[in-house]
Amino acid sequence: MVRDALGVGVAVGLSGFAFGVTSAGSGLSLLQTCALSLLVFTGASQFALVGALAAGGGAVTAAAGAFFLGVRNAFYGLRLSQLLALPRVVRPFAAQWVIDETTAVSLAQPTRRAARIGFLVTGLSLYVLWNLTTLLGALGADAIGDTKAWGLDAAGPAVFLALLAPMLRTGTERAVAALAVLLGLGLLPVLPAGVPVLVAALAAPLVLWAHGRGIASRGDVEERR
Fold first, then answer.
1. DSSP of the chain, one letter per residue?
2. Which residue windows are transmembrane per the record (predicted)?
3. pLDDT tens across 184-219, in order?
4. In the prediction, which pLDDT does 127 show?
């Protein structure tokens, strides 16, 4: 479990380099770039913010998109608060580490103790590496050159998808993922940045509702027989 948590922390933490380079390329200073990783610490929101700025968007628009993407962490917190049951004095500090990766590792554990260890190891390793590689990326941005040519802004999402794909074991899980992709990509051209991600979250209840209807229909057919 510790090995798995460290693996996630190291794999995702290294993509902070891509954020550092992208952020510096979008015009943010070294201090601003590092402050985003230290204080915001949610990769998707950080990439959304600097991506919007690089595309010429205003600060308010960029911040709004990052905010919408970060909303999902609040829902993670609701689930993790029950699972981890941390002391009240620790919760404000633990909230900083409530992100996709720590949630995934924690929920995969069989016991509360294992979930707490997974959360701690993943959060600590990822926070340290993400901030270190952000600094290195920002410092080395000039040497990299044109960040758009390298496509480094896609590194973070690509890493997360690589971690997520092996977890899609059932047909229902794959259906949720497929519908979420369709909703997210389909609405991307017509909705503000960040909103398509929130709408894509509706894929889970929609698929579960359809699955339940299918089970109920099969049950009715069996009873008629």
1. -HHHHHHHHHHHHTTHHHHHHHHHHTT--HHHHHHIIIII--HHHHHHHHHHHHTT--HHHHHHHHHHHHTHHHHHHHHHHHHH---TTTHHHHGGG-SHHHHHHHHT-SSHHHHHHHHHHHHHHHHHHHHHHHHHHHHTHHHH--HHHHTGGGHHHHHHHHHHGGG--SHHHHHHHHHHHHHHHHHTTTS-TTHHHHHHTTHHHHHHHHHHHHHHHHHHHHHH-
2. 47-71, 117-138, 150-168
3. 888 878 877 667 777 887 888 888 888 777 766 665
4. 95
Query: Dihedral through CA 59, CA 60, CA 63, CA 67, nearest 10?
Result: 180
Q: Which residue has the higher pLDDT, 162 or 23?
A: 23
Other C-beta atoms closer than 10 Å to the C-beta of 188 total: 13
Dihedral pair phi/psi, residue 69, rounded to 5°: -65, -35
pLDDT tens digits along 164-173 = 677 677 888 8
| CB distance 167 to 173 below 8 Å | yes
Pull the structure tokens for residue 193.
């940045």
Give the angle subtended at the CA of 116 by the CAs of 110 and 119, to the nearest 5°.
Answer: 105
Q: Residue holding tokens 């509706």?
A: 202
What digits encode the pLDDT tens for the residues 142-162? 666 655 555 655 665 666 676
